[in-house]
Amino acid sequence: MAFDLASLLTDNRGRQFELHSRSMNPQLVRVLTTLGFDRTYVRSEGAELIDAEGGRVLDFLSGFGVFALGRNHPVVKQALHQAIDADLPNLVQLDCGLLSGLLARALTGKAHAGIERVFFTNSGAESIETAIKFSRCATGRDRIVFCDHAFHGLTTGALALNGGEEFKKGFGPLLPGTTRVPFGDADALERELSRGDVAAVVVEPIQGKGVYIAPDGYLAAARSSCTRHGTMLVIDEVQTGLGRTGRFFCHEHWGVAPDIITVSKALSGGYIPVGAVLTTTAVFDAVYSSMDRAVVHSSTFAQNELAMVAGLATLHVLEDEGLVERAARMGERFLDALAPLVERYDLFHEARGKGLMIGLEFGPPPARAGRARFAMLEKARKGLFSQMIVVPLFRRHGILTQVAADNVNIVKLLPPLIIGDAEIERFVHALDDVLADAHRGSGSGLMVEVGGAMARNAWRQRPRGRQAPPAHQAAEPSHQPAEPTSR
Fold first, then answer.
1. pLDDT computed for residue 382 by the predictor
2. Cβ-Cβ contacts under 8 Å for 70 (sequence gap 6 or more)
3. With 402 labelled, which of 63, 156, 211, 287 sits at a CA distance of 20 to 30 A?
4. How far apart are CA 231 and CA 97, in angstroms?
C-alpha cells in the first residue's frame, strides 16, 4: 500500500496536542493551551497561517526568523521539487558535492574581502559550536568571551555562551573557559582580551533576547581589540543575517569585518534546516592543516543536497525580489508608524530596531498611581505586562508575536521580509487597540481579560487531581516558549 500523506493528516487532524502530550513535551502543550495558542493550523502562505476553521493569523514570529521569504515561497518550493525529481547523488560523503560548492561560493560572495571558506551545518547552534572549535584551533587558546543577554543556542557549547541563566539550570557544568562581559562595554571587553588568552569574542550585532542593538562604535572597538590581541571576532548572524536588518549581514551597518560569521534560519528558505560558518582561509588552514586532518570536523547531513538547493534558491529570491532593500524600507516605515503610539501611550516606552527586527519596550507610566499598579503587576510575575500585549494581539486580532525574553517587557517583531504597508497598518491598528485598554487603569482591564482567559484555558486542560500550572511566558524559552528552534 502506498504512503498517503493526505489521508494521514486528515485522519489525525486536531490530535497534535494529544500526541505531543503523550509522546513529546507535555509542558509545552500546557503552556500553549493556557495562553490560548492551541489552534489547529492546516496551511500557510506568505505572511499568514491558516487554521482549520479558515481563520488567518498574521505571522510576525516567522518561526523565529526562519520564514524571511514568507511561508511556502513558490520559487523555493519549485527548486526543491526539481531537486527531488533529479534523483541527485546525495550525501556520498567520499565526494565533493557540486551544489555545496556553489552555495559556498555564493555566500562568500556576499561577505567582505578575506572571507573565502564555508563549513555547512544543520543549525545555528551547530554553527556556533563550529565557530568555538575553529577559533580555538586557529589561535591555540581556550577562552571564549560572550555578552550579557546573549542567545547563541542550546547545545552544550552554545549554551555556555548564553547570557540567560534560566537555560542553564539543571544541565551541570558546561564548557569551561567562558567569560561574560556587558554588551556594549568596549572597555570591559578590552580588559578581558588584554590578558592574551582569549580565542574568540562571540557577539550578536542585535541581540535576539530583547532586541538590544550594539551601540555605535562598539563593534568597531571590538574589532580593534581582537586584532590587537590576536583574538577571533565571531559575529552571530543566525537571526540578523540574510537581509533581516536591511543589510545582507547586520554587521555591515557598522562596517566591521569579522573573522567568522555564523548563519542559519532564513538560509533554509523555510524548508530544509541548514546553517553555515563563513571564515578566512587562515582559519580553515589551521583546522584542516594536513591530509590526516581532512575530516577532523564534519557533520553527516550538513551538505544535504536539498538543503543546498534551498539555500541557493533563497539567495536567488532575496536578490530577485530585492528583499534586503525592502526590509530596510519597510522597517523605516514600521518604526515611523509606531512612533505616534509611543507618544500617545505612557506605557509604551520605545520602538527600536533595524530593518524588520523590531523591539517594542513597555514600562511603568510616569504618574504615581499608574506606577503603583504596574509595580503590583510586576510583583505577580516580572515581565507579565508584555505577555498581556502578546495574548490579545493573537486572540483579538489574529497576530502572532513573541515576548523577547524572560523577565522583560519587550515584544519582538520578526515579520517576513515580504510584508507591505497593509500588514504594517494592520499591526499598528491592533497594537493601538490593545494599548488603549492597557492605558485604562495601567493594564487592569487587560489583566482581567488575559488572566481570565488563561485561567479558563488552564482549567480546561488540567489533568484530574493535579493543580494547573501558573501562567508562563510564551517567549523565547521564553522564546515562545523556547528557541532551541531557532538555532
1. 84
2. 45, 46, 47, 270, 416, 417, 418
3. 156
4. 32
CA distance linking residue 447 with residue 352, whole number of Å: 25
Task: Let me know the angle formed at the C-alpha of 439 by 437 and 441, rounded to the nearest 5 degrees.
Answer: 90
Distance (Å, rounded) from C-alpha 334 to C-alpha 348?
Answer: 15
Once rounded to an integer, what is the mean pLDDT over residues 461-468? 49
The C-alpha cell that represents 249 in the structure block: 549581514
Strands (E), 182-337: 198-203, 206-207, 212-213, 232-236, 260-263, 275-280
What are the cell numbers at 298? 564534519
Q: List, as one string, the DSSP characters of 79-104.
A: HHHHHHHTT--TT-SSS--HHHHHHH
- Interatomic CA distance for residues 149 and 132, integer angstroms: 19
Fold of the domain spanning 76-320: Aspartate Aminotransferase; domain 2 (3.40.640)
Amino acid code (one letter) for 256: V
Domain spans in the chain, listed from the N-terminal domain onward? 32-65+324-460, 76-320
Quote the CA–CA distance of 206 and 150 in Å, as a whole number.
Answer: 10
Quote the cell numbers at residue 82: 526539481
Q: Could you report the per-residue pLDDT of 4-39, keeping only the tens digit for each?
A: 999 999 999 999 999 999 999 999 999 999 889 999
- Mean pLDDT comparison of 199-208, 398-407, 447-456, 472-481, highest-scoring range: 199-208
